[in-house]
Design goal:
The complex is a heterodimer of chains A (about 300) and B (about 350).
Chain A lengths: L1 H28 L3 H5 L6 H10 L6 H13 L13 H6 L2 H28 L4 H15 L2 H15 L12 H30 L2 H8 L4 H26 L6 H6 L5 H10 L3 H29 L14
Chain B lengths: L4 E2 L28 E13 L4 E13 L3 E5 L6 H8 L7 E9 L2 E2 L5 H7 L4 E4 L3 H4 L6 H13 L3 H14 L5 H5 L8 H13 L5 E5 L7 H18 L2 E6 L2 H7 L2 E6 L2 E7 H6 L4 H8 L39 H5 L5 E4 L2 E3 L8
Helix pairs in contact in B: 4-5, 4-7, 5-7, 7-8
Classes of the chains: A mainly alpha (about 300), B alpha/beta (about 350).
């Protein structure tokens, strides 16, 4: 078990390293921060001084090495725009992001999982078809379209809710609903297919044949098995709590990590983009680790170590 | 699995003619009051969304207390469906007709809750693939205890003690250790023993064993059959053994029913069936068995393949594969008729074969 965790941890670190390396190279190939932050019309000496000041004149391999050495010391670089530590800029945006992604996550679970279970239990019924149509609609409609439609209906036409900004809790409602509905649609579909798969298994028939009433067959035999694939997708949703709201935050002018990412990329504020990506990769990798651990807990077949093989 | 439609008795589910009595009584119907389970005119059709595909065309059978009957036939002939239908385990797409009665009580009157009380308690069932018939995420002990508390009201230490006794009863070594094992940690044979132990938890009057040895190695097969025979002798419960293997059936059954394409084509005492098979299909099955004592010969296969449900030929379903078929066989479905006191055959040519 310890070896399992160690190997998983090592793989997680490698993943993060690859993400950062990739981002490092792409960011430096895609434009000169000096031109973007100062302006193309700035005097060449100023541009040169800017590049020198941020170490952009050094060979790429040296910058790369320096970047990782700094990370190892806990230094994630400074924002090229205002010189503040990049990590501080990112961290101060996290509460705003979580203020919409956490409630949205709860909404996904509360709507998606029960809807999926219900649809599977009433397969091919009217309700199943309704749930599945909504689900298809929910995840084919891009979140910026859904967000704009909600703004049009609830802010512009009805005037019940503000269309953007962050000055009151009411401002969070539309972003939360936009994020939550899309995720609920995905989750409903996953949960339904997981349930259908499980309901067709021989052990479900066994559970009925041993005399359990249907409700108990579902609760104590079908649900624990259907949880296994569903946990994967929920894990992804947990991993995207920090950076899953880029589009929605932009649509609703919500001051979270997502909007910071958009503006940092636009400005080639390298250190900030890299700090965000590090955070996002760490979240994703961590949630995957947690999912793996949960798997072992839910599905005994994946637990290694203790095996009591018996013949005959 | 909540609502199955029992559409009532299907009259004339089996057309009877010629030598047969007016209504072909399932054999061993003498003193029918002691029938534990009686199935009459059982039909099943599956609704595939567009149409109903019939898979059972009127099954009659009776099991008395303590009796062992074998139900034999190829895959898809309806031998398992018969029992899944009787226990209402087929799901919503199945349309079921005919009557199934337990101790004289027609079961289609029973509510879903009443059916649940019958399952496992009066009629238990074990299945073909023991490894996937047990829930992979629950320990053996928990799955056993579930049955024990359901049917016997025992919980906690009492249920554990009973679970240990049952595992011991089915000759599982180290039962204490096995209680905390998961199904994937046990072999197929062990899992089938666990299934049998679970079935015994309700002390049922009838155990339906649906191809209990098909997924197992030959040596394990023999052990499981020995176990079933032993338990039956000790407990006096009736056993319905479903198999495609005539050898398995010959071994332990008092009576045998041969099914083909959703109908019973022959029913007889084991001895009579194996000595003088009456139906060309049964004769073909027996000819396809190797005889260990006789000199080597080529095994004979039955020509052709089983027709798909919904695409049966008119008349006798077997006629296209039958060496004795003629124009008469296409005219109508032959009903079961007696060729002997305890031997029924559904074949127009039964007298002349």
């Amino acid at each position: 078990m310890l070896r399992y965790i160690a190997s998983r941890g090592l793989r997680a670190l490698i993943t993060i390293f690859l993400v950062l390396s990739f981002a490092f190279v792409i960011l430096r190939l895609s434009g000169d921060p000096a031109l973007l932050i100062l302006s193309p019309d700035a005097p060449p000496e100023a541009l040169e001084a800017f590049r020198k000041g941020w170490g952009l004149d050094a060979p790429l391999w040296r910058q790369y090495l320096g970047y990782f050495l700094n990370i190892a010391e806990g230094n994630f670089g400074q924002s090229m725009r205002d010189g503040r530590p990049a990590i501080d800029l990112v961290l101060e945006r996290i509460p705003a992001t979580l203020a919409i992604t956490l409630p949205a996550f709860a909404l996904k679970l509360l709507i998606g999982v029960p809807a999926g279970i219900f649809a599977a239990l009433h397969r091919n019924s009217l309700i199943d078809r309704l749930v599945m149509s909504l689900s298809v609609a929910g995840y084919t409609i891009p979140s910026f379209v859904l967000g704009l439609v909600l703004v049009l209906v609830f802010a512009v036409n009805l005037g019940w809710l503000p269309s953007g900004g962050y000055t009151s809790p009411w401002h969070a409602v539309l972003p939360i609903v936009t994020l939550g509905l899309g995720g609920a649609a995905i989750l409903a579909r996953f949960t339904r297919s997981a349930m259908l798969e499980v309901l067709g298994q021989p052990y479900i028939r066994t559970a009925s044949a041993k005399g359990l009433i249907w409700r108990r067959v579902v609760t104590s035999h079908a649900l624990p098995n259907a949880a296994i694939p569903t946990v994967t997708i929920i894990g992804f949703m947990v991993g995207s709590l920090i950076a899953g709201a880029v589009v929605v935050e932009s649509v609703f002018s919500w001051p979270g990590v997502g909007r910071l990412l958009v503006s940092a990329v636009a400005n080639r504020d390298l250190a900030v983009v890299q700090a965000i990506l590090l955070l996002v990769a760490a979240c994703m990798v961590t949630s995957n680790l947690v999912v793996d651990a949960l798997y072992g807990w839910i599905d005994p077949r994946l637990r290694s170590g203790r095996t009591v093989k018996a013949g005959g | 699995m909540s609502t199955l439609d029992f559409v009532g008795l299907q009259p004339g589910a089996a057309t009877v003619r010629g030598f047969a009595p007016a209504v072909a009584k399932p054999i061993a119907a003498q003193g029918s009051g002691d029938a534990l389970v009686r199935i009459a005119g059982l039909t099943v059709a599956f609704d595939d969304g567009k149409r109903h595909v019939p898979v059972l065309h009127g099954i009659d059978l009776e099991i008395r207390r303590g009796e062992t009957i074998g139900i034999v036939g190829e895959s898809g002939c309806g031998k398992s469906v018969t029992w899944l239908a009787a226990l209402r385990l087929l799901g919503k797409r199945a349309r079921i007709g005919g009557t199934v009665s337990l101790d004289g009580q027609p079961m289609h009157d029973f509510s879903d809750a009443a059916m649940a009380r019958i399952r496992g308690k009066q009629i238990a069932m074990i299945f073909q693939d023991p490894a996937s018939s047990l829930n992979p995420v629950h320990r053996i002990g928990r799955q056993l205890a579930e049955s024990i508390s359901l049917h016997r009201g025992l919980t906690g230490q009492a249920a554990r003690a009973e679970a240990l006794r049952l595992l011991d009863r089915v000759h599982i070594p180290n039962p204490g250790q096995r209680l905390s094992a998961y199904p994937h940690e046990l072999s197929g044979g062990m899992n089938q023993r666990v299934m049998i132990a679970m079935a015994l938890a309700g002390e049922p009057d009838l155990l339906v064993a649906d191809e209990p040895t098909t997924a197992l190695d030959a040596t394990i097969q023999a052990q499981i059959l020995d176990l079933l025979r032993e338990i039956r002798q000790d407990s006096g419960m009736a056993l319905a053994l479903i198999s495609h293997d005539l050898g398995v059936i010959a071994d332990i059954c008092d009576r045998v029913m041969v099914m083909y394409a959703g109908r019973v084509v022959e029913a007889a005492d084991s001895r009579a069936l194996f000595a003088t098979p009456g139906h060309p299909y049964t004769q073909g099955l027996l000819a396809a068995l190797p005889d260990l004592d006789a000199p080597h010969r080529r095994l004979e296969a039955i020509a052709g393949t089983v027709p798909e449900p919904g695409k049966l030929p008119g008349g006798c379903s077997f006629r296209l594969r039958c060496p004795h078929a003629d124009a008469d066989c296409a005219a109508e479905v032959p009903g079961l008729g007696h060729i002997d006191k305890a031997h029924q055959v559904a074949c127009l040519k039964a007298d002349s074969l």
